[in-house]
């Protein structure tokens, strides 16, 4: 995968890089996956991180394994959080854009009421753990079914269905604690 990039490096640097790759690739993937909860995105982050490692190889050669790992994991975390935040901002922009379009098409009073309900639901969803939150956003805001969500999240459709039920149950509990009753 990195053979073409390694051509401009000497034998010592190539061996050093290959050793880093073998030792840390799985840990890097796991670190990125924890943040992104998506194996394809985690793979991309690992790849981008190794390219950054290549660009800064002179800082790593001759340093301790612990310092090298700290440097590498910092790169992975920053890249993963940057991607996560970028996607989160994009999702928020899409939601805002959708609301503006709805306001132009629907009766203004009905739209305002719907926006208030959606705002309350968005706040409730934001209180859920990340996995539950992502499933409900994909399910209700992006109108994806369990199979589509399962493909995105790398889980089985049955697992997604159960997680969605548990997430909705948590929202009902929060609403009940606040004095609201009724289904979602």
In whole angstroms, how far apart are the ends? 48 Å
Number of helices, where a helix is a run of at least 4 consecutive DSSP H or I residues: 9
How many extended strands?
0
| Helix-and-strand structural type | mainly alpha
Radius of gyration: 22 Å
**Main beta-sheet strand count, sense and barrel state:** none
For this structure, the quaternary state is: single chain
Calculate the mean pLDDT score and round it: 81
The residue ranges in which pLDDT falls below 50 over 5 or more consecutive positions are none
Order of helices and strands: HHHHHHHHH
Approximate shape: elongated
The residue fraction in helices comes out at over 70%
Strand content: under 5%
Provide the fold topology:
Layout (H helix, E strand, L loop, with lengths): L2 H4 L4 H26 L2 H17 L1 H4 L4 H41 L2 H19 L3 H12 L4 H8 L3 H21 L7
């Amino acid at each position: 995968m990195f053979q073409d990039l390694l051509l401009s490096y000497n034998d010592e640097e190539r061996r050093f890089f290959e050793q880093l790759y073998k030792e840390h690739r799985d840990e890097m993937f796991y670190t990125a996956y924890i943040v992104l909860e998506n194996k394809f995105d985690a793979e991309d982050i690992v790849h981008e991180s190794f390219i950054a490692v290549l660009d800064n190889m002179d800082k790593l050669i001759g340093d301790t394994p612990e310092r090298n790992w700290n440097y590498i994991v910092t790169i992975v975390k920053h890249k993963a959080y940057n991607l996560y935040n970028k996607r989160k901002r994009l999702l928020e922009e899409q939601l805002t854009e959708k609301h503006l379009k709805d306001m132009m098409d629907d009766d203004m009073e009905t739209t305002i009421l719907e926006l208030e309900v959606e705002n309350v639901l968005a706040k409730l969803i934001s209180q859920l753990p990340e996995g539950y939150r992502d499933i409900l956003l994909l399910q209700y805001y992006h109108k994806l079914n369990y199979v589509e969500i399962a493909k995105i999240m790398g889980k089985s459709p049955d697992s997604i269905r159960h997680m969605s039920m548990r997430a909705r149950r948590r929202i009902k509990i929060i609403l009940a604690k606040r004095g609201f009753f009724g289904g979602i």
